[in-house]
């Protein structure tokens, strides 16, 4: 199997970036998703330029599986890597892809100079909680995807981790074992699914260290999000299989009020408070980076970062 040649001036690895000097108390990174329309793409690029001024350690772009936004994903990831100063991580999933197609996608990213990939098995299209069916000529597990990427050239690969345990894992021990195997297969770090209870993250970190101290030394990056809508976060939790803690749900519900429409301004204010509190605790616990799910908006995350002491001058514009 021949190697894929990436741009020799390929970007720094995520591990290098989060270890580099940074302003503020901890490095941060931002997750974007591929837009589905010209208006959404304009919003994305506005957010990109706002965050670019704040020097994140890296940005990532989620993957449109099944052809829905796949071509747009590859194009925009390439533009992030070539037309901005941002270190770009491209998500890659095994859903609906043969090994040959996966090789082609890795090659397409390499052609854009992208050497940082996040290897994910991915969720079934249409129903994230539905039955996962492997492509007959593809791979079944993220571990295999990590190994495939590693066989193709000089790439830097990360994987997903799940503070509450993946909903398909029978228990936390099995889920931890899956993560350790992905790290042993060559993943250099992991980024967690979005969560809302810091204790879940800390216990995951403890489990990985206990299972394999060598792999436990690799960066475990928490994924967090400032909540701006109670209705939206409830839907996200439902689709991801994660949990909204009772205390958090109560604070948000109190802010939302009893009217026919939630008080979005009050929910947003509480959501930013909650995210800031989580971030402060995570920083105190020594996390290597904070990864923000931005939903392609900049303002809420920027407000949290400003509270944490990150220089956001000129960045707090409506988005």
UniProtKB/TrEMBL annotation:
A Pfam family cross-referenced in the UniProt record is: MTHFR
Name the chain's protein: Methylenetetrahydrofolate reductase
SUPFAM superfamilies documented for this protein: FAD-linked oxidoreductase (SSF51730)
Species classification: Bacteria, Bacillati, Actinomycetota, Actinomycetes, Mycobacteriales
Is Flavoprotein among this UniProt entry's keywords?
yes
Catalytic activity, as annotated: (6S)-5-methyl-5,6,7,8-tetrahydrofolate + NAD(+) = (6R)-5,10-methylene-5,6,7,8-tetrahydrofolate + NADH + H(+)
Whether Oxidoreductase counts among this entry's keywords is yes
Q: Which pathway does it operate in?
A: One-carbon metabolism; tetrahydrofolate interconversion
PANTHER family recorded for this chain? METHYLENETETRAHYDROFOLATE REDUCTASE, METHYLENETETRAHYDROFOLATE REDUCTASE (NADPH)
Domain of life of the source: Bacteria
Q: Which cofactor names does the annotation list?
A: FAD
Provide the family line. Belongs to the methylenetetrahydrofolate reductase family.
Q: Which UniProt keywords apply?
A: FAD, Flavoprotein, Oxidoreductase
